[in-house]
Amino acid sequence: MNKAELIEALAKKADVSKAAAGRLLDGFLESVTTELKKGGKVTLVGFGTFATGKRAARTGRNPRTGATIKIPAAKTAKFTAGAALKKAINKK
Q1: Cα–Cα distance between 91 and 80 in angstroms, integer?
Q2: How many CB atoms lie under 10 A from the CB of residue 21?
Q3: Contact indicator for 54, 76 with CB cutoff of 8 Å
Protein backbone atom coordinates (compact mmCIF):
# COMPACT_ATOMS: atom_id res chain seq x y z
CA MET A 1 0.00 0.00 0.00
CA ASN A 2 1.40 3.39 -0.94
CA LYS A 3 0.51 6.81 0.45
CA ALA A 4 -2.27 7.49 -2.09
CA GLU A 5 -3.90 4.12 -1.35
CA LEU A 6 -3.63 4.76 2.40
CA ILE A 7 -5.29 8.17 1.99
CA GLU A 8 -8.09 6.57 -0.01
CA ALA A 9 -8.61 3.89 2.65
CA LEU A 10 -8.60 6.49 5.45
CA ALA A 11 -11.11 8.66 3.59
CA LYS A 12 -13.44 5.71 3.12
CA LYS A 13 -13.16 4.48 6.75
CA ALA A 14 -13.59 7.96 8.27
CA ASP A 15 -16.21 9.07 5.72
CA VAL A 16 -14.26 12.22 4.83
CA SER A 17 -12.87 13.59 1.57
CA LYS A 18 -9.54 12.39 0.22
CA ALA A 19 -8.19 15.92 0.66
CA ALA A 20 -9.12 15.92 4.35
CA ALA A 21 -7.67 12.44 4.84
CA GLY A 22 -4.46 13.57 3.12
CA ARG A 23 -4.16 16.58 5.43
CA LEU A 24 -4.72 14.35 8.47
CA LEU A 25 -2.10 11.85 7.35
CA ASP A 26 0.41 14.63 6.59
CA GLY A 27 -0.28 16.16 10.01
CA PHE A 28 0.24 12.81 11.71
CA LEU A 29 3.53 12.19 9.90
CA GLU A 30 4.76 15.71 10.65
CA SER A 31 3.86 15.37 14.34
CA VAL A 32 5.66 12.02 14.68
CA THR A 33 8.71 13.38 12.84
CA THR A 34 8.85 16.49 15.05
CA GLU A 35 8.65 14.42 18.23
CA LEU A 36 11.37 12.02 17.05
CA LYS A 37 13.63 14.94 16.10
CA LYS A 38 13.34 16.17 19.69
CA GLY A 39 14.43 12.73 20.92
CA GLY A 40 10.99 11.78 22.18
CA LYS A 41 8.79 8.84 21.30
CA VAL A 42 5.20 8.41 20.15
CA THR A 43 3.21 5.56 21.69
CA LEU A 44 -0.11 4.43 20.26
CA VAL A 45 -1.38 1.93 22.83
CA GLY A 46 -2.10 -1.41 21.20
CA PHE A 47 -0.60 -0.36 17.87
CA GLY A 48 3.03 0.38 18.64
CA THR A 49 5.75 2.87 19.48
CA PHE A 50 7.82 5.12 17.24
CA ALA A 51 11.20 5.96 18.80
CA THR A 52 14.75 6.84 17.85
CA GLY A 53 17.82 4.68 18.14
CA LYS A 54 21.53 5.29 17.73
CA ARG A 55 23.83 3.64 15.26
CA ALA A 56 27.51 3.81 16.19
CA ALA A 57 30.19 4.97 13.78
CA ARG A 58 31.76 2.09 11.94
CA THR A 59 34.11 1.14 9.14
CA GLY A 60 32.72 -0.17 5.87
CA ARG A 61 33.87 -0.97 2.36
CA ASN A 62 32.98 0.63 -0.92
CA PRO A 63 31.57 -2.33 -2.89
CA ARG A 64 32.79 -0.93 -6.21
CA THR A 65 36.40 -0.17 -5.29
CA GLY A 66 36.90 -2.19 -2.12
CA ALA A 67 38.28 0.92 -0.40
CA THR A 68 37.72 1.26 3.35
CA ILE A 69 35.36 4.09 4.29
CA LYS A 70 34.26 5.58 7.59
CA ILE A 71 30.51 5.54 8.17
CA PRO A 72 29.52 8.24 10.68
CA ALA A 73 27.26 7.67 13.68
CA ALA A 74 23.58 8.29 12.96
CA LYS A 75 20.17 8.40 14.58
CA THR A 76 17.61 5.94 13.25
CA ALA A 77 13.84 5.73 13.44
CA LYS A 78 12.44 2.57 15.04
CA PHE A 79 8.96 1.13 15.28
CA THR A 80 8.03 -1.52 17.82
CA ALA A 81 4.69 -3.22 17.26
CA GLY A 82 2.24 -3.31 20.16
CA ALA A 83 0.54 -6.43 21.52
CA ALA A 84 -2.80 -5.80 19.79
CA LEU A 85 -1.12 -5.31 16.39
CA LYS A 86 0.97 -8.45 16.80
CA LYS A 87 -2.13 -10.42 17.77
CA ALA A 88 -4.14 -9.03 14.83
CA ILE A 89 -1.56 -9.92 12.20
CA ASN A 90 -1.00 -13.41 13.60
CA LYS A 91 -4.69 -14.40 13.65
CA LYS A 92 -5.59 -17.20 11.28
Answers
A1: 19
A2: 20
A3: yes
- C-alpha 41/C-alpha 26 separation (Å) is 18
pLDDT in tens, 9-44: 999 999 999 999 999 999 999 999 999 999 999 999
- Which residues fall within 8 angstroms of residue 8, CB to CB, at 6 or more apart? 18, 21
The answer to whether 10 touches 3, Cβ cutoff 8 Å, is no
Phi-psi region of 60 (alpha: psi -120 to 50; beta: other; left: phi over 0): beta
In 3-state terms, what secondary structure has residue 18? Answer: helix
* Domain 41-92 listed as CATH 3.40.50.920: no
AA identity, residue 3: K
- Please tell me the pTM assigned to this model: 0.79
Domain ranges for the chain: 1-38, 41-92
